[in-house]
Amino acid sequence: MNRVLAVTRMQLVNWPVTLGWPWGILMASFLANLAIFWSIADTTDQPQSTGAVMSIYIVLLVGYGQVITQFFPFALGLGVTRRAFYAATLLLLVAESLLYGVLLYLCRLLEAATGGWGLSLRFFALPFLVDDNPVAQILIYAVPFTVLGAIGMCSALVFKRWGVNGLFVLGFATIVLGGGAIAWVSWQRHWAAIGHWFADQSALTLFAGWPVPLTLVLAGIGYLTIRRATA
Question: Residue 109: how many CB atoms within 10 A of its CB?
């Protein structure tokens, strides 16, 4: 455990990628949206929502891909085992996800206290993400980070293990399986039932419940892949 914690602290040297850029991009997106909605404030009196908060999730996905492609070879060169590196990266991902969840919740409180930044703008408090319970709200924000971080890690590990061809095969399989699933649902006319199922789920279940087993599956796949990945 001490070795895992030591590798985790070592990875914090890379904080601009996993911490700085996600929040930098989010703040840039926030200011851009603030300017846009301020410019049209006189044309509508309805509350306005924007999904730009998702930018931080996408940047974190890319960041954890870079952790594998850039930091993994460096760690192996220092004699760090694959198991210790992977465990440390997962630990860092969970810790950062919880931190991000708390920070986003605080941003939501500030947004509510300022009346949507004086513009009735819902940037952090998207209607389908809102829960009145503070712990539930933090989890709703935090858990999706773990899924996307795991996706970024697995994608990068596929590249480290099988190269560009591995990524092409992964992309091809994703398109085929995704397209096949969509075609089957359309053929069976299940879209209405799926829509009702999603509508019946709470935000906590959708964003903090179902993603947990997906994260565990991805973490398992990543572990099996990193055992044979080369620097």
Answer: 14
- The pair phi, psi for residue 121, each rounded to 5°, is -95, 130
Give the whole-angstrom CA distance, residue 158 versus residue 168. Answer: 10
* Cβ–Cβ < 8 Å for 34, 117: yes
User: Which one, of 85, 88, 225, 206, lies nearest residue 151 by Cα?
Assistant: 225
CB of 97 closer than 8 Å to CB of 143: yes
Q: How many CA atoms lie within 13 A of 122 on its CB side?
A: 11
pLDDT in tens, the chain (231 residues): 677 888 888 888 777 776 788 899 999 999 999 888 888 776 666 778 888 899 999 999 998 998 888 888 888 888 888 999 999 999 999 999 999 999 999 999 999 999 888 888 899 988 888 888 999 999 999 999 999 999 999 999 999 989 899 999 999 999 999 999 999 999 989 899 988 988 888 889 999 999 999 999 999 999 999 988 776
- CA separation for the pair 105, 127 (Å, rounded): 14
